[in-house]
Design goal:
This protein is of the alpha/beta class. The protein is built from 11 helices and 6 strands. It has one domain (60-257): Uracil-DNA Glycosylase, subunit E, CATH 3.40.470.10. The structure holds uracil. Uracil (URA) is lined by residues 110-114, 117, 123-124, 126, 128-129, 156, 231.
Length: 258
């Protein structure tokens, strides 16, 4: 509709009121109007953009990808150190990867760093670790010797200290399992020693160390011996007798496989 410029103000008002009475609620000119492109005070508010769908990160899949990309133990150490999806890392001072001789025939898997290990960045350096060194020395194994036949290599299920040394949660074990599995593949030991429930949960999918200990099983495709954790032996010295029997079983197995 072309505006009628001849209308006097009274006639224009009367015409407008009549149109409003008819129900007209918008003035439309001949030229199309982009209501979104009007100056801000006249513009029609734009409909809100739909909220972006949050991308879901699967930490186990990320860990598996990073672990499988590692071609050497050094690569794997870097991959574990760079992994940011586990909350435990935020509260830890150090990533505790491994100690001992990576060429050893025996690889020991513990639970998680405690206070001393978190401070020093090495597994099993506190009281439990000192007992562990004495136990393995009694069957001729040490973490410092270069001879793979007389050495052991040692790591933990979790590379970061849980707050207050609480037990690892199943979700934490599952998240870090791809790194442990790759660790075993790359170190390629003849036998594994699973120290305590967390190691048995990760490697065998089973708990109940007092039932499992001393019975050879298979984990990550190789022989694995569950044993009571040295921290347990510090609290329950009477259990050292059975631990000694387990060490002798390990010695016999190594001699047989040699
Ligand atoms: N207990 C563990 O299981 N691992 C350590 O490194 C120290 C104590």
């Amino acid at each position: 509709m072309t505006p009628d410029t001849d209308l006097d103000p009274d006639a224009a008002r009367a015409a407008l009121e009549w149109l409003i009475e008819l129900g007209v609620d918008a003035a439309v000119g001949d030229a199309p109007v982009d209501a979104y492109a009007l100056p801000d005070h006249l513009a029609v508010p734009k409909p809100a953009a739909p909220a972006p769908v949050a991308e879901v990160t699967d930490p186990v899949a990320v860990a598996r990808g990073a672990a499988n990309a590692a071609k050497t133990l050094d690569d794997l150490r870097d991959a574990v150190t760079a992994f940011d999806l586990c909350e435990l890392k935020k509260g830890a001072r150090n990533t505790v990867f491994a100690d001992g001789n990576p060429k050893a025939r025996v690889m020991i898997i513990g639970e998680a760093p405690g206070r001393d290990e978190d401070l020093q960045g090495k597994p099993f350096v506190g009281r439990a670790g000192q007992l562990l060194d004495r136990m393995f020395a009694a069957i001729g194994l040490s973490r410092t010797t270069p001879d793979p036949d007389r050495a052991f290599y040692i790591t933990n299920v979790l590379p970061w200290r849980p707050p207050g040394n609480r037990d690892p949660e199943p979700a934490e074990i599952a998240m870090l399992l791809p790194f442990l599995q790759r660790h075993v593949e790359l170190a390629d030991p003849d036998v594994l020693v699973l120290m305590g429930n967390a190691a048995c949960t990760a490697a065998l999918g089973q708990r109940g160390i007092l039932r499992l200990r001393g019975k050879w099983a298979e984990a990550f495709g190789r022989p694995a011996l569950p044993m009571t954790h040295p921290a347990y032996l510090l609290r329950q010295p009477q259990a050292k007798r059975e631990a000694w029997a387990d060490l002798l079983s390990l010695r016999a197995r190594l001699d047989r496989l040699a």
